[in-house]
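STRUCTURE REQUEST FORM
Protein name: Adenylate kinase
Source organism: Streptomyces avidinii
Requested output: structure tokens
Priority: standard
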Amino acid sequence: MRIVLVGPPGAGKGTQAAFLAKNLSIPHISTGDLFRANISQGTELGKQAKAFMDAGDLVPDEVTIGMAKDRMEQPDAVNGFLLDGFPRNVSQAEALDVMLQAEGMKLDAVLDLEVEEDEVVKRIAGRRICRNDSSHVFHVTYAPAKTAGVCDTCGGELYQRGDDSEATVRNRLEVYHTQTEPIIDYYKAQGLLVTIPALGEVADVTKRAMDALKK
Ligand code: AMP
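Status: completed
Returned output:
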């Protein structure tokens, strides 16, 4: 299956993507994670992306599309993938269609995680992520780690992403509304869009998404 996950920052894309990818036995491809890995390894691509990410802006398409394409061409992705955070604007969505068409492939579904804006800000402000694995996500109030600052799953250090500060979150939401939301209509027009209410327990949201994919 080839699936795209969309939704505002804080909708739980990373958390849901990890569960869905595992259930479906396909790789979870997160462009945000790929950028963060490049930054921590000090690569040229990481240097190009960093300032945009710190400000909560989109990294330019010239950098992003090539990186996403390289990842989708890896052997583990031949039978499908779950894209998390890509595409993030209409020109990336068009580039993805061109890429897939060239290989005789197409998307199976686009899952839109829907959540209220106030909720999103609360979720992001309290979010803490494991340095070892960004799919190990905690929240200081909603999902606290047993020991503050330490990942329950692997013992890694928990940290707050630099771009999770309130000012940057406001900009990321603005960027989401102006640049990313138009892809919802783009995919609706292709008959691919499935809207999933993303409130409630993590496992319930995963179930809603899995049920929708079976239809
Ligand atoms: P995420 O982890 O998906 O929230 O992404 C973190 C940041 O990485 C975003 O705020 C952007 O600066 C950058 N980023 C991730 N994916 C993309 C993309 N598809 N296009 C442009 N920038 C991206």
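Reviewer notes: The beta strands are 2-6, 28-30, 81-84, 109-114, 127-130, 137-139, 158-159, 193-197. Residues 2-115+180-214 form a domain with the Rossmann fold fold (CATH 3.40.50.300).
Form closed.
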